[in-house]
Design goal:
Elements: H1 6-17, H2 19-22, E1 31-32, E2 35-36, H3 40-65, H4 70-82, H5 85-94, H6 98-113, H7 122-125, H8 135-141, E3 149-152, E4 156-159, H9 160-172, H10 181-201, H11 203-212, H12 216-232
Antiparallel strand pairs: 1-2, 3-4
Helix pairs in contact: 1-12, 3-10, 4-10, 5-6, 8-9, 11-12
Length: 247
């Protein structure tokens, strides 16, 4: 979650800030340039693990997934995105943003029906574009600070606030209380395919960030924090440029 996948928060932030500017090999144990990272030693070990998983599992899976016809991949990605809309709706309500909540609700209803279970995105065709959010952003709207930077195993870049958000997002997602066990397996598989699809679609950017920057950990950290802070401030973040996620 965290905006559909960690690629979109990290990679697109990196594209905005520039990989060269992100490369920072200086260790930090406190705050520097607005970054609080007291757990850097542990975070770097987790980052090395995540890179190994990407190299051994995710990147090869993405290449295999590339065999699937593009239209089918797009339909599956649309369906996965549609299933995040109920959670987006709850968070927009909690953030006191009824306009966005209304857009999200209309998107979900239209795409679930006319779009055939979200396989299509007719809502975007009438100007109702995705407005992704999460409980981390809800906490920010309530005035809670982001806290220290954390890298989570498999999930990637985060902060204390956003890590709490991940847990709460799962708890408040209305779908968790209405789907059957069989549907839950389908949902899990669909979201997994969406992550693999993101890895395929943005492979050049991901590879540049993780494998070509002088310090991939510092690059990811800076990119993630810049992107999330822009989202919290309601500013344009890279993932919104040219609306690539009317996802």
């Amino acid at each position: 979650m965290l905006k559909r996948s960690w690629f979109r928060a990290v990679v697109f932030g990196a594209a905005l800030s520039g990989l060269g500017a992100c490369a920072d090999t200086t260790q930090t144990t406190g705050m520097r340039d607005g970054i609080v990272d007291p757990f850097e030693a542990t975070n770097r070990r987790i980052h090395a693990f995540n890179k190994a998983v990407d190299s051994a599992v995710l990147a090869p899976a993405a290449q295999i997934y590339g065999i699937v016809p593009e239209q089918l991949r797009a339909a599956l990605d649309n369906s996965a995105g549609n299933l995040t809309e109920p959670r987006n709706f709850v968070n927009h309500v909690l953030q006191g943003d009824p306009e966005s909540a209304g857009v999200v609700l209309l998107r979900f209803l239209m795409n679930s029906t006319v779009g055939i279970a979200g396989l299509g995105d007719p809502a975007a065709d009438v100007g109702l574009f995705e407005r992704s959010t999460d409980f981390g952003e809800t906490l920010a709207a309530w005035g809670l600070p982001e806290g220290a930077y954390i890298e989570l195993p498999l999930l990637g870049a985060s902060t204390v606030r956003n890590t709490v958000g991940i847990v709460v997002d799962f708890a408040i997602d209305p779908l968790n209380y209405v789907i059957t066990e069989e549907q839950a397996y389908y949902l899990f598989a669909l979201r997994g395919l969406s992550i693999v699809g993101d890895r395929l679609e943005y492979s050049d950017l991901v590879n540049s960030l993780l494998y070509e920057s002088a310090d991939s950990y510092a690059a990811q950290r800076l990119a993630y924090l810049q992107n999330k802070r822009r989202a919290v401030a309601g500013e344009t973040v890279v993932e919104d440029l040219d609306d690539p996620f009317a996802q």
